[in-house]
Amino acid sequence: MAEYYHIPKLYIGLSIVALGTSLPELATSLVAVVRQENEISVGNLIGSNIFNILFVLGGVGLIEPLSVLEPVMRNGIETTEFPHLQFLVMTGFGLVLLPICYRKNIIGRLSGLLLLCGYFIFYWQLFEGR
């Protein structure tokens, strides 16, 4: 279906595959929060993401070099340009959230709302840039 609509594999990986591989962590964290085991929830999410980014990407890179940016079509032109705007948006959300989370030492409703907004803005920017 992605090939039919000419959706780059990068977008499929960033959305469908990412969602499918993150659902177990989400379920584990939700159960931990309901059981008042917040440390397990945060540790699970952060540990899983650190493992996936550092260990999995590092291991794959040892076996076979991989292209981080595959060619994508933007305005009818093929490019491997780094998605600067998306990177800046997500970095900005991270920088805004740091003082909010550390001020009260919690990730509350405001932080959660900002994180979800950041997620949706990231995808909106990603697909609008196509």
Automatic annotation (TrEMBL):
Keyword Membrane belongs to the record: yes
Topology term for the membrane: Multi-pass membrane protein
Annotated compartments: Membrane
Biological processes annotated in GO: intracellular calcium ion homeostasis
GO MF annotation terms: calcium channel activity; calcium, potassium:sodium antiporter activity
Matches recorded under Pfam families: Na_Ca_ex (PF01699)
Primary localisation category: membrane
Sodium/calcium exchanger membrane region domain: residues covered: 2-124
A GO CC term attached to the entry: plasma membrane
Name of the protein: Sodium/calcium exchanger membrane region domain-containing protein
